[in-house]
């Protein structure tokens, strides 16, 4: 018997516009606890605006958004703080503070929510988060400018995980990484989801990520989420954009990569 899924993010009737430009209209989306949901759509379809609406950084014209069952729009600061504590965000490009070290960046959200925390404990938590994201321990005292692109993403992820969130927002985390770096970041995301029981809202253009780690994919087009499901379910829908996206040359390459990875795993299991 199918169990009822626990909805962690619910968006209903969302409308966002900038001047005459309507970005979203009547957009609905549910995200379930524990899943990695990929959010895809052409450039400018409003993926980042959707994320900003969910986390309360963008006040929509219309609609309702709840996270953990609590509305996020128009909340008092103290109420919003209690919700914000429970999620972590990796913005596009990492958005690290360039004048702070990696460890100090990780400490920013901890200090914001727990200003009286013992500095020794603060340092310990930051060091732990740095190592947890696969960075070497000596990355903590480094400044963002001293890091590679992949390391910056990991540092941004360490900061997003600073408060042990239940929900993680990732806005194009593998953009700008080479395929090996991107695959390693995907693996890290998946393993964190498993070990921490995270729910992950992943905006991406990276088809390899969708195939490798997403449980479901939501497709933004025509100002709405036009479909949401597993990749196989989406392909079966026979929608021209979805068809082109998943069955075009990049989609076929992503399938080939996934099959090759499956072969390697099978061989490893047989040995
Ligand atoms: N603060 C803003 N003021 C005016 N227009 C905005 C603002 N933020 C976003 N937009 C517009 O809203 C639309 C959707 O932007 P958004 O960044 O969400 O797209 P996206 O799907 O994330 O795109 P991409 O894949 O290129 O990152 C774009 O046309 C953008 O120019």
Task: Explain this structure.
It holds the Pfam family ABC_tran. This is ABC transporter ATP-binding protein. By secondary structure, the chain is an alpha/beta fold. The chain has two domains: 1-86 and 166-231, 3-Layer(aba) Sandwich (Rossmann fold), CATH 3.40.50; 90-164, no CATH class. It contains ten helices and ten strands. It has helices at 47-54, 77-84, 102-113, 119-132, 149-160, 179-196, 207-213, 231-235, 240-247, 249-270; strands at residues 7-18, 21-32, 36-41, 62-67, 70-71, 87-90, 167-171, 199-203, 216-221, 224-229. The longest helix is centred in the last third of the chain and has 22 residues, at 249-270. The protein is globular. The model has no long low-confidence stretch (mean pLDDT 88). The structure holds adenosine-5'-triphosphate.
């Amino acid at each position: 018997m199918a169990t009822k899924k626990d909805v962690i993010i619910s968006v209903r009737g969302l409308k966002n516009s900038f001047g005459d430009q309507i970005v979203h209209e009547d957009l609905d989306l549910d995200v379930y606890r524990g899943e990695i949901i990929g959010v895809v759509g052409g450039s400018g379809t409003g993926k980042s605006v959707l994320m900003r609406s969910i986390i309360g950084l963008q006040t929509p014209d219309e609609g309702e958004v709840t996270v953990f069952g609590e509305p996020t729009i128009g909340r008092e600061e103290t109420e919003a703080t209690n919700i914000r504590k429970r999620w972590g965000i990796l913005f596009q490009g990492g958005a690290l503070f360039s004048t702070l070290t990696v460890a100090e960046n990780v400490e920013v959200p901890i200090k914001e929510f727990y200003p009286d925390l013992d500095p020794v404990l603060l340092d310990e938590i930051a060091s732990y988060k740095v190592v947890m994201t696969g960075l070497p321990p000596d990355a903590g005292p480094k400044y963002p400018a001293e890091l590679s692109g992949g390391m910056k993403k990991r540092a941004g992820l360490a900061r997003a995980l600073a408060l042990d969130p239940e929900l993680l927002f990732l806005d194009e985390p593998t953009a700008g990484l080479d395929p090996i770096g991107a695959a390693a970041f995907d693996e890290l995301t998946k393993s964190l989801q498993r070990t921490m029981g995270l729910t992950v809202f992943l905006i991406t253009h990276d088809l390899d990520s969708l195939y490798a780690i997403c449980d479901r994919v939501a497709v933004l087009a025509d100002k709405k989420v036009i479909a949401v499901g597993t990749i196989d379910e989406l392909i079966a829908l026979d929608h021209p954009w979805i068809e082109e996206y998943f069955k075009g040359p990049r989609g076929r390459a992503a399938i080939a990569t996934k099959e090759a990875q499956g072969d390697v795993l099978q061989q490893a299991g047989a040995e």
